[in-house]
Amino acid sequence: MSTPKPVAPFQPQETVPAVYPALTTIFLTGATSGIGLALAQRMLKEGKTVITTARSAEKLKAAQELAPGLVGYMLDMTTGDKVVGSVVDQIIKDYPQLDAVICNAGIQKTLYFNDAANLPDPNSTWKLEIETNITSVLSLIQMLLPHFLAKDSPCAIMTVTSGLAFIPSADYPIYNATKAFIHSYSMTLRHQLRKTNVSVVEIIPPAVQSNLNPEHREAHPERASMYMPLDVYADDVLEKLRGTDGQSFDEITSGFSEAGCGYARAFIRQRFQMLNPSN
Ligand SMILES: NC(=O)c1ccc[n+]([C@@H]2O[C@H](COP(=O)([O-])OP(=O)(O)OC[C@H]3O[C@@H](n4cnc5c(N)ncnc54)[C@H](OP(=O)(O)O)[C@@H]3O)[C@@H](O)[C@H]2O)c1
């Protein structure tokens, strides 16, 4: 495959004040494996309190062995607002100093809609993807916002999207769109909260080694070299979150995801400001 020519000037990001260094207590969903676990390990080592939710006690125990100090609550993020709300209330009661959430839990389904006899079962595929990657994220953020906004210290809402939010892969038609949804929502939430103590940071991974969609990864060993090693990726995210001279980014990108965002950034940010004046 030949290298595509750039279609627009690449636009590096402008920096924003780094919020991560001041954070003390982070609710990080999906820390039982992959990116969430790797981030939790690093954040715990830096002295942060990290709280996660897990669907399986065995997985939680295994994660706690790999990430000593990780606090866990049993919860499937898709069980609905009543159950999720009661666990979130309990977390706030147990950790009133909670000052950040990282909405990292997510799933990815390989889906094809071109064979009428074998269309995906909606409930176990795209409805679950939308519930996990969009609905539960919006609900969690809305549940936590009153707590964050009542504080007089810096707080952060971090979403986890994907380079595929910008350049969709045809193997994951719904997944790409869920991440594009959360990207758009992150931009507008950041704008709406710009005069508050709550910062919105979007973590935008490229392809990274993890347990995401394992069947598809096993079926395509030829793609293995595309995946960034997990430790390399997690170190990069932490370095960018920590920032330099008190400055970081509101979109944390690496590799492919930086390319995807960078070519669109100049145009989109300029037009976003026209549509949404800052004052
Ligand atoms: N890896 C990549 O290439 C890549 C690229 C771009 C974006 N991302 C995003 O990065 C995030 C982390 O994914 P990953 O790659 O680290 O995958 P992963 O290894 O499969 O980890 C996903 C985590 O989310 C949890 N989770 C999923 N559904 C849940 C639910 N209903 N309730 C509670 N927890 C749930 C999983 O818990 P269980 O252990 O119980 O399954 C697991 O801890 C996702 O949002 C993903 O879309 C990943």
TrEMBL record:
One Pfam match: adh_short
Highest taxon, organism lineage: Eukaryota
GO biological process: phosphatidic acid biosynthetic process; triglyceride catabolic process
InterPro entries: NAD(P)-bd_dom_sf, Sc_DH/Rdtase_CS, SDR_fam
Keyword Oxidoreductase: yes
Keyword Repressor: no
Record keywords, A-Z: Membrane, NADP, Oxidoreductase, Transmembrane, Transmembrane helix
Cellular component aspect of the GO annotation: endoplasmic reticulum; lipid droplet
Gene3D superfamilies: NAD(P)-binding Rossmann-like Domain (3.40.50.720)
GO molecular function: acylglycerone-phosphate reductase (NADP+) activity; triacylglycerol lipase activity
Protein family membership: Belongs to the short-chain dehydrogenases/reductases (SDR) family.
Protein name according to UniProt: Oxidoreductase DltE
Source species of the chain: Bifiguratus adelaidae
